[in-house]
């Protein structure tokens, strides 16, 4: 493992892409920044611009509108950019599978590196998922 | 040879960047403690810079050459300011006449670099941030220069950093007088705006215009902008120390003063909401300019 990868895993900047979620997962993500779960301990911060992001957090089921936006967002991000699908909707569309307004799942649009299921996943589950993502990155690169 | 060493290593680039990055960690840690969190480890800002160096650099379609060059302009002038200030702190007698004016110009350059880079990136949010940054520069430069003129009057009309320091070593720090403390309060607010910290961070307002001026930057140029911010976080408090607190320049006292100014800045940052750009401008041209003129008047009467 080289210095570059080590630095990447120690300072993941997160961009939060909400592709029409019900806001439950979003609140759980914001929970991670609060005193109880403080993920800034591990160098993770929310950034405003997708150009600066290392991780794209995707929540919700992509519909016809947000599908294009998500594709664009991923193309705009500086590589290496990891993608994490948070919540049951982003992982596999659960009960919206047959919906008229849900063309495809997140991993059919962009490559997803980690899935964190749950409706919504607890903050502990999200942290566990990110730890697994970091282990995966360390093995890959 | 000695000049290159001074510029690149001590007290120039390497030293000021390291001190600035550690000060940036101090800022994040104190912020975290105020919010009852734990905060990042001490090497976090170094890790961020190394990570940014390893990322892809995206140049937006139609961006000018200034998009890539302006970060260097900001960093080079900030480092030059750090070098001149550090040298005049170490050897007050070797400074040249008028270096105070040079420092004033050099400290505007990072803001100019941000404006140039943002407006050449062809992003509407970036141009919005650039226009806000421009207004902020116009706002804070007036009271800042007036406060510095008060210092110049107090140190017998000298525009040389070394003789300002010598004056303070002989007759006591400027902050220990009425005009000095008023000018110091003005200058603290101005460097808060120069650093882009919270009451005056409208150009980079994350919640309204995403990352504002830095929105299109990624990889190496972003790392250079972050280094510029870090160097400024070392340079500006050092400038204030030379202007107002120059009585005792031993290392222990210097560290105490530096950390004191840093804590004041961080506390202002953490206890205030962001001002709208018109409110910030009104604040700088209204109360702060009046305070600066009062300081000037007091200095003229020798108080």
Terminal CA distance of chain A reads 7 Å
What's the overall geometry of chain A? globular
CATH topology of chain A: Rossmann fold
Strand percent estimate of chain A: 5-15%
At CATH level 2, the architecture of chain A is 3-Layer(aba) Sandwich
Report on the biggest sheet of chain B.
none
Number of strands of chain B: 0
Radius of gyration of chain B: 19 Å
**Percent strand of chain B:** under 5%
What structural class do the secondary elements of chain A suggest? alpha/beta
Assembly of the depicted chains: heterodimer
Number of domains of chain B: 1
Description:
The complex is a heterodimer of chains A (141) and B (303). With 141 residues, chain A is of the alpha/beta class. In chain A, 38% of the residues lie in helices and 15% in strands. Chain A contains 5 helices and 5 strands; from the N terminus they run H-E-H-E-E-H-E-H-E-H. Chain A has a 5-stranded parallel sheet, sandwiched between helices. The N and C termini of chain A lie close together (7 Å). Chain B has one domain. Helix content of chain B is 72%, strand content 0%. Chain B is globular. The mean pLDDT of chain B is 87. Chain A binds chain B through residues 3-4, 7-8, 10-11, 34-35, 38, 40-43, 47-49, 51-52, 54, 76, 78-80, and chain B through 28, 32, 35-41, 44, 47-48, 50-51, 53-58, 206-207, 210-212, 214-219, 222.
Sum up the structure in keywords.
heterodimer, A: 141 residues, alpha/beta, Rossmann fold, 5-stranded parallel beta sheet, 5 strands, globular, B: 303 residues, mainly alpha, 12 helices, 72% helix
How do the helices and strands line up, and which of them pair or pack?
The complex is a heterodimer of chains A (141) and B (303).
Chain A: H1 3-10, E1 13-18, H2 24-31, E2 45-46, E3 55-59, H3 64-76, E4 82-86, H4 87-92, E5 114-116, H5 123-140
Parallel strand pairs in A: 1-2, 1-3, 3-4, 4-5
Chain B: H1 2-8, H2 13-34, H3 44-53, H4 66-90, H5 99-119, H6 124-154, H7 161-171, H8 178-195, H9 206-209, H10 220-244, H11 251-270, H12 277-300
Helix pairs in contact in B: 2-10, 2-11, 3-10, 4-5, 4-10, 5-6, 6-8, 6-12, 8-10, 8-12, 10-11
């Amino acid at each position: 493992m080289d210095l570059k990868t080590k630095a990447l895993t120690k300072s993941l900047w997160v961009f939060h892409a909400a592709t029409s979620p019900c806001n439950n997962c979003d609140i759980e993500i914001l929970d991670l920044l609060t005193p109880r779960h403080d993920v800034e301990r591990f160098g993770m911060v929310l950034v405003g611009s997708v150009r600066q992001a290392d991780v794209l957090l995707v929540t919700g089921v992509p519909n016809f509108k947000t599908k294009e936006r998500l594709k664009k967002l991923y193309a705009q991000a500086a590589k290496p950019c990891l993608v994490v699908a948070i919540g049951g909707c982003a992982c596999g569309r659960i009960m919206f599978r047959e919906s008229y307004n849900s063309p495809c799942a997140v991993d059919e649009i962009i490559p997803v590196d980690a899935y964190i299921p749950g409706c919504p996943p607890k903050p502990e589950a999200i942290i566990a998922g990110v730890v697994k993502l970091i282990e995966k990155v360390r093995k890959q690169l | 040879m000695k000049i290159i060493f001074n510029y690149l290593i001590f007290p120039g680039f390497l030293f000021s960047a390291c001190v600035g990055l550690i000060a940036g960690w101090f800022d994040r840690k104190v912020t975290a403690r105020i919010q009852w969190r734990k905060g990042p480890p001490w090497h976090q800002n170094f890790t961020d810079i190394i990570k940014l160096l390893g990322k892809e650099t995206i140049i937006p379609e139609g961006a000018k050459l200034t998009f890539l060059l302006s970060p260097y302009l900001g960093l080079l002038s900030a480092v030059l300011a750090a070098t001149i200030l550090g040298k005049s702190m170490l050897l007050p007698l070797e400074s040249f006449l008028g270096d105070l004016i040079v420092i004033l110009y050099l400290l505007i350059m990072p803001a100019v670099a941000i404006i140039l880079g943002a407006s050449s990136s062809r992003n509407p949010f970036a141009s919005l941030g650039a226009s806000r940054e421009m207004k902020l520069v116009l706002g804070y430069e007036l009271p800042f220069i007036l406060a510095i003129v008060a210092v110049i009057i107090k140190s017998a009309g000298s525009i040389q950093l070394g003789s300002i320091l010598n004056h303070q070593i002989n007759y006591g720090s400027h902050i220990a007088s009425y005009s000095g403390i008023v000018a110091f309060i003005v200058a603290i607010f101005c460097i808060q705006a120069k650093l882009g910290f919270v009451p005056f961070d409208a150009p980079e307002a994350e919640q309204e215009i995403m990352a504002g001026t830095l929105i299109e930057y990624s990889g190496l140029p972003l790392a250079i902008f972050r280094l510029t911010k870090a160097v400024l976080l070392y340079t500006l408090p050092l400038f204030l120390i030379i202007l107002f607190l120059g009585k005792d320049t031993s290392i222990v006292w210097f560290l105490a003063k530096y950390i004191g100014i840093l804590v004041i800045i961080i506390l202002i940052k953490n206890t205030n909401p962001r001002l709208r750009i018109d409110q910030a401008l009104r604040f700088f041209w209204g109360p702060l300019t009046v305070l600066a003129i009062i300081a000037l008047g007091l200095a003229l009467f020798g108080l």
